[in-house]
Amino acid sequence: MSSAYRKLCIYHTLDGLREGLSHFSGPSRAALLLSLAPQDPIRVLDPQFLLDGHQPKLRELFLDCTAWRAACNAPEGLRPFELRPLQDPQLTGLLAFGGSNREVPLLMWFTEEHPDLCSKGPTLRWLEHAAAQLLLDLAASNDLRDGASGFVLQGYATHAVRDYIVDRRNELVGLDTHLRVYPTLDTILGISHTREEGAWPRGRLAFVEPALLRDIHFLASFPRMEQPSLANLRHCRKLMLAVESSDRALVSDGRTIVGITREPLPQGTILADFQGRHGFLFLDDEIIASFADGAFQSTNRKPNLVQLEEALLESSLGYDRQHELFRIVSGIVACAQERKHGCTIVLDLREAPRSLAGQTLHAPLNLTTAEGMDLACSFAKVDGALHIGRDAHLHGFACLLDGRAVPGENRARGARYNSAVRFTATNDELIVIVVSADRPVSIIQRGIELTARCAWTPLPGRVPTPPTLEEWLKLP
């Protein structure tokens, strides 16, 4: 196999993995540690600096210690595309999967652990599949697989969710099960975007192992020959009305809807909780993923305000006040997302809040009270920004933000976002939180979006050779 072909395989696999995870979890990065022969050095492929800051730990694990090389002397029996798993290096904020065999001493994928993940399981299965695909590419004797792994990994979301559920159900109920997971997931996605008289589905649908149905006490059940088939999505959607806004659940054996219950469900049950335009997928009490617009996603749909928390930690505020302001902003953002409207919040950290053009109040509104928070959430629907001071009081609403054009503007984001960028560029000690009507949240400070990510654009022409781990550790 030529060196050029190997490098193309690696870069295509990395690009496909990154692209697929970005659709599943939001903007994501990926990195790879790889050694292709027992005596070869470890090479690092990290085009978006995912591993930046973890250099001391990587040096300790892979340069100062050589115990990982013992795995390449594993007993016979592993095929060329099989790996003996290596221990997770436990890098803060990252998920990893790697392994070793006689031909490839080290292959380890990394991606970031998003703070709003429902479960790490599907993402880890994704990394495991990326490792298997890359091994197949490296074991191939021709270029027929060039680029194939990238396309496979781009659309792996449903398969990752299915793989994790199958593994967990094997642990819970054993290997000999009759509930097929792929048709179950297809049914959930099909019902999720089937409307009844213009309304999106609400309620719970449980998929139970057929052998365990006898343990369920049904409020109502259907004769065997008249049980609604899951293939008829319209009929299933109509039956969801029977469990809407209640603690009841429809029960299915994976082929038909058997009845309705409110009793505890058997172990290994796959549960879909429909909540309108979106919903959540559970295995027993463990949340696996969310779903919306006919696709599975990793997000728990809670606002991601990690960058706001970090910005508050860097301020001069005391810990209690940081926590109070974070709680207030989180509550307003969550309310805006639930009501599906956009809003802007100006967090003014100056000792004396500045004067903003907008609707002022005779006396600032105390946001530490339930009444104050409820009123602030209602004010957030009015055009303009909420003005919150470091004293946890609302000093104004419907405020106008202005400023001169700056390089950080994004014409694709609209007036709310760009006015916040302009305003913070000329005003220190301000943090602006912009909530879009379609859910994204942007944290902006000093004219820079703290939540922004740089996209990886592969350079045209020859694919470069990745640096060795020793060379990479010396990079500035």
UniProtKB/TrEMBL annotation:
Keywords: DNA-binding. GO terms for molecular function: DNA binding. The keyword DNA-binding applies. Residues 305-458 form the DAC domain. InterPro entries: DACND, DACNH, DNA_integrity_DisA_N_sf, DNA_integrity_scan_DisA_N. This is DNA-binding protein. It comes from Desulfovibrio psychrotolerans.
